[in-house]
Design goal:
The chain is an alpha+beta fold. About 35% of the residues lie in helices and about 25% in strands. Strand 6 (about 205-215) and strand 7 (about 225-230) form a beta hairpin. Helix 3 runs antiparallel to helix 5 and helix 7 packs antiparallel against helix 9. The chain is globular, with a radius of gyration of 18 Å.
């Protein structure tokens, strides 16, 4: 009998307030598991945010305003924050159920645990609870065995600079899981197949990293990719391209799960969302 990971949150809509909390705030068991893991280097805490009400960050921004000083105290910074794009053709497969994407860089995972124990940070949590109806929180880490990308989490941490985000650029986040057998080979083959198509469209694979630990997530993922496109039009052109569709159809047969979110960089609501 398998044991459910403490970082997995319920799927579907909540039926009561207790179930609502399970979709917004990580459990004490999930945080305890994270605190016990080896603290071997910098991480990114991936945030997917669904605001309450949908598309309105006004309540959530009150949490951000109060949490930001505590986030800065532990040496964290936002590597990327974007507003999700929801008007693509459904055939492209983008998940439009999210409102925001955040990549927050922590020098060590203990910095994140230290933040959770801050009294001032804890006082901000009620605003987060009220301002979000669903969150995904996932630890991402570098993996030297993955296909190369333009940057690494270690390089982001060392530079203390956010990812480039020129006006009009689009970032596509992909979380992928593959069948147990031949998982790493399937991912490597997928990246090799899409790389020339990305290059032709002017896109850059910014990050290729491992989703290590679900802190609050509906699913467990094997790989995470973040791709930067020069424009909305370039995304539409590539995803409508027959060669791209053929690659996706062939590789999807080896996947057991996929979550893709497109976004454009915007100012963070009020300031920094941990």
């Amino acid at each position: 009998m398998s044991i459910r990971h403490p970082g997995l949150s319920p799927v579907g809509e909540p039926e009561n307030f207790e179930e609502y909390l399970l979709r917004v705030n990580p459990s004490s068991a999930s945080l305890a598991m994270l605190a016990k893991q080896p603290d071997g280097g910098p991480i990114i805490m991936l945030n997917l945010l669904r605001f309450n009400p949908r598309g309105d960050a006004s309540i959530y921004s009150e949490y951000v305003k109060r949490a930001a000083p505590e986030v800065e105290k532990v040496g964290s910074f936002v590597g990327y924050y974007g507003r999700t794009l929801t008007d693509f053709d459904p055939v492209f497969g983008f998940d439009d159920s999210w409102d925001g994407v955040g990549l927050v860089v922590y020098h060590r995972r203990q910095s994140f645990i230290q933040l959770q124990n801050s009294r001032n940070y804890q006082l901000a949590i009620p605003f987060r609870t009220a301002g979000a109806s669903r969150r995904t929180l996932y630890v991402l880490r570098d993996n030297e065995q993955l296909p190369g990308a333009a940057t690494t989490i270690g390089e982001l941490d060392a530079s203390r600079e956010s990812l480039d985000s020129a006006n009009g650029e689009v970032y596509v986040l992909d979380l992928l899981s593959f069948t147990e057998s031949g998982r790493s080979k399937a991912f490597e083959s997928y990246v090799q197949a899409i790389s020339p198509l990305l290059q032709q469209s002017g896109a850059v694979l910014e990050l290729s990293v491992s989703p290590e630990t679900p802190v609050l997530s509906e699913a467990i993922w094997d790989y995470c990719m973040l791709t930067r496109f020069p424009s909305l039009e370039s995304v539409v052109a590539l995803y409508g391209n027959s060669a791209w569709k053929a690659v996706q159809n062939a590789c999807t047969k080896k996947m057991v799960g996929r979550l893709s979110v497109a976004s454009q960089a915007v100012p963070i609501p009020t300031t920094t969302p941990p």
